[in-house]
User: Fold this.
Amino acid sequence: MLHSLITGGAGFIGSHLCERLLKDGHSVTAIDDFSTGSRRNVAHLAGNPNFELIEGTVLDEALMEKAIARADRVFHLASAVGVRLIMEQPVKTIETIFNGSDVVLRHCATHRKRVVITSTSEVYGKGVSIPFREEDDTLSGATSKHRWAYACAKALDEFLALAHFKESQLPVAIVRLFNTVGPRQTGQYGMVVPRFVASAIRDQPIVVYGDGLQSRCFAHVLDVVEGLARVLEHDACFGKVINLGTDQEISINDLAAQIIAITGSRSRIEHVPYEAVYGDGFEDMLRRVPSLERANGLFGYAPVRDLRDIIQDVAASLRAQI
Ligand SMILES: NC(=O)c1ccc[n+]([C@@H]2O[C@H](COP(=O)([O-])OP(=O)(O)OC[C@H]3O[C@@H](n4cnc5c(N)ncnc54)[C@H](O)[C@@H]3O)[C@@H](O)[C@H]2O)c1
Assistant:
């Protein structure tokens, strides 16, 4: 039986990955400090003899050394996440992302463990060449704008992972996740889909930041987890950056309208300027579309769920909590 270690395993994506790997017959250890994740996300796995949940931080060298030594493969998802959190806690953001990945990569290198690092589409920054390809140049904003700290810290993680691959052939893959949504994602940190759906099912106004013409591609978490689960099975993925998400694009205004239609809501759409939410100097990107060619070529990745599935699943899970 393969033993998988998932950092951030009590988070949104991490908890779905725990489920998926247990179904595949792995034993799973999840390490989480519950900063944005919660025990509730994995409560249904508590009775499973192949599942273990450890409360702790990836910054704890001794804990990580021991956990990585015991694992066959490591999925590193622990991170500061969410635009609001990143704007409000920039020091914690940088330290958690970079120092956490450093600890994970160093111990994986010592123990020669397969590891996947989760990076983000934010790394493409203000890139305008659509779709985004992994070898494209990246264009970040000024360092005085905290928003870019998340992207730059994740980019540094990528450099470090690729450096380990180059110097010691560490079997490491890097996935750049695009917007991933589904049940258990919380709207608390500024995530758009759970925030909109929560408003829609209560018939409250749906608040769009900016003019709503910015667009995104929303992938169902189960499709993303499918990709994450497969990436370490293929040696050709090591030493590579791989986009993961979906390439179906929708504007935020259309997203709000679809959520209203699918949930049968009486909500109205309201617009507020970014500055009112995140303060002066906030920058957003107009479009973010991944090329999925590499993921498809390496391990046959092809998302199968659409936006309707996502909205229905998120609405069902939020209604169950009311
Ligand atoms: N959801 C998305 O759309 C998206 C997009 C791009 C990248 N990602 C990346 O995917 C990964 C998972 O994100 P998510 O959406 O599930 O968010 P999440 O906030 O639900 O998951 C992150 C988890 O890491 C935990 N964590 C934070 N700091 C920790 C620490 N020091 N030690 C141990 N655990 C810690 C949190 O408690 C949480 O459970 C992150 O690396 C994130 O950057 C997510």
Observations:
- Residues 7-8, 10-14, 31-37, 57-59, 77-79, 81, 96, 100, 118, 120, 177, 179-180 surround nicotinamide-adenine-dinucleotide (CB under 6 Å).
- The CA atoms of residues 158 and 174 lie 7 Å apart.
- The first helix runs from residue 12 to 23.
- The mean pLDDT is 95.
